[in-house]
Amino acid sequence: MNSPLNNTALNLVNVTLEYPDGDGTLKALDTVSLKVRAGEFVSLIGPSGSGKSSLLAVAATLVRPTAGLVVVDGEDAGGLPDSGRTALRRDKIGIIFQQPNLLPSLTAVEQLVITQRLRGGTARAAGERAAALLDLVGLGHALAKRPHQLSGGQRQRVNIARALMGNPAVLLVDEPTAALDHQRSEAIIRLLRQVTDEFGVATVMVTHDTDFVPLTDAVASMRDGRLSGRAATAAAAAPRRG
Fold first, then answer.
1. Which domain holds residue 181?
2. DSSP result, the chain
């Protein structure tokens, strides 16, 4: 576990993001503030174009905000050069994209090993961790399978395991169930609940599917670039492991 449950792992403070738009500017994020503690699972909902993807991109340090602070596991991303932001993202942030984007020529275990090798360390250690994570997400039997041999839900499980390889403090998840049916969607959200609890990560999930919001600790709503509200769910009161 990365840090105690009451520690803030992701802190966005008055974040504004503007893009040029003709003679003016388009405000994708408007003074957004969001705190997510280690071991907390937050859903982010809102209509298309409300700023959800922009918030994830800023939190992932993929995009520099126009103004405001982005603090990841106690480190201010705004004060870092591009190389420092890359290192912060590599070492402290796990990103789960809507599409797994697995390399077709690699097996499930190799998908994970190749990302860990970029961080350094031995091939043996990377292989052992990859196998353990794939077993955790229910794919211990499929280490040698390639993407075309896996179902959509299984590919998303590889995606989740891959995001955990670096032992991140923050897990950012973008519409993980968009291509899945209801049953597989629920299984994926329950898996994200499990890894949030077991690894003590701060998880933020963008979703259009509100059916599974009760499995998360809190739900935050976005509209027109603003975070319009945040409410605790019943899961917030449930006992946690650790």
1. 8-103+168-237
2. --S-TTSEEEEEEEEEEEEEETTEEEEEEEEEEEEEETT-EEEEE--TTSSHHHHHHHHTTSS--SEEEEEETTEEGGGS-HHHHHHHHHHHEEEE-SS----TTS-HHHHHHHHHHTT-S-HHHHHHHHHHHHHHTT-TT-TT--GGGS-HHHHHHHHHHHHTTT--SEEEEE-TTTTS-HHHHHHHHHHHHHHHHHHT-EEEEE-S-GGGGGGSSEEEEEETTEEEEEEE-GGGGS----
pLDDT at residue 102 is higher than 70: yes
Has residue 176 been placed in a domain? yes
The rounded percent of the chain whose pLDDT value lies above 70 is 95
The verdict on residue 150 lying in a domain is no
CATH number at residue 53: 3.40.50.300
Residue 90: both structure tokens together: 């590599």
Residue 186: count other Cβ atoms within 10 Å of its Cβ.
16
Average pLDDT estimate for 194-217: 94
Would you say residue 186 lies in a domain? yes
Number of separate domains in the chain: 1
Q: What is the pLDDT of residues 219-233, one digit of tens each?
A: 999 999 999 888 888
Neighbours of 147 (CB within 10 A): 18
Give the pTM. Answer: 0.91
- Report the candidate in 61, 60, 63 with the shortest Cα–Cα distance to residue 28: 63
Query: Is 111 inside any structural domain?
Result: no
| C-beta separation of 196 from 40 below 8 A | yes
